[in-house]
Write a structure and sequence with these properties.
single chain; about 260 residues; Glutaconate Coenzyme A-transferase; 8 helices
């Protein structure tokens, strides 16, 4: 599917909706935190954060690289630049057994093919049943463990009715199930999805675990968000507007992409 990006102008700069999404996602990451990074949009945002406001952000990739500091965006978890720039390289079982499952990682940063109103993620199959789907996706990888065991989970994903659905076709990575309490009932360590950043705005779960829109990106309307959501999305009473990207954030993001 071709993604069409809108371009927004400010007095300082011009940027795309994808750039706004990436910058907003990067800003959510704090210096000194340990972040388990998925490839794609999460990796772009995490590396932007590390090269701007969070130089002490510890990036952990599923391949076993701890503290990677790439000067370009890695093509995959097996990209050599992750090992070359890492503080340490350990085995995959060690990453999961000694870092992830014991709760030593603060933030899991994930993407999604489908996301539902309770933050459940599908990256497995779309349409039909598991044995004979309309679309078979790349699958789980380490995402289910990340969603289960990290302190909290951030999700970054482009928003449309195809990706934001009432109920995912397959639960690859557990969010809040069908509401608050299901994670605890399953014995899951982490808090689950606490933040969802899209190319239209920002969502957080309420006390029931359902996602609520808390901020719009500049130039985006409530009607646009409603039209791109497959359920009746609720809005915060004090709906905010995201600060546009700064010139420095845009320059750094574009340099990372140009080097890749």
């Amino acid at each position: 599917m071709t993604t069409i990006e809108t371009r927004t102008s400010t007095t300082e700069s011009e940027y795309t909706s994808d750039e706004m999404m990436t910058v907003a996602a990067a800003r959510a990451l704090r210096d000194g935190k340990k972040c388990f990074v998925g490839i794609g949009l999460p990796s772009t945002a995490a590396n932007l954060a590390r090269t701007t406001h969070a130089p002490g952000l510890v990036l952990i990739y599923e391949s076993g690289t701890l503290g990677s500091k790439p000067d370009r965006l890695p093509a995959s978890i097996g990209d050599g630049i992750l090992a070359e720039t890492a503080d340490a390289v350990i085995s995959v079982p060690e990453v999961f057994n000694y870092w992830l499952q014991p709760g030593r990682i603060d933030v899991g940063f994930l993407g999604a093919a489908q996301l539902d109103k309770y933050g459940n993620i599908n990256t497995t199959v779309i349409g039909g049943d598991y044995a004979d789907p309309k679309v078979r996706l790349p699958g789980a990888g380490g995402a289910p463990e990340i969603a289960a065991s990290c302190g909290e989970v951030f999700v970054v994903v482009r928003q449309s009715q195809r990706s934001f659905v009432e109920q995912v076709d397959f639960v690859t990575s557990f969010g809040h199930g069908r509401g608050t309490g299901e994670r605890a009932a399953l014995g899951l360590r982490g808090a689950g999805p606490t933040l969802v950043i899209t190319d239209l705005g920002v969502m957080r779960p309420d006390e029931t675990g359902e996602l609520v829109l808390v901020a719009l990106h500049p130039g985006v309307t409530v009607e646009q968000v409603r039209a791109a959501t497959g359920w009746t999305l609720r809005f915060a009473s004090d709906l905010a507007v995201t600060e546009p990207p700064t010139a420095a954030e845009l320059a750094t993001l574009r340099a990372l992409k140009a080097a890749s």
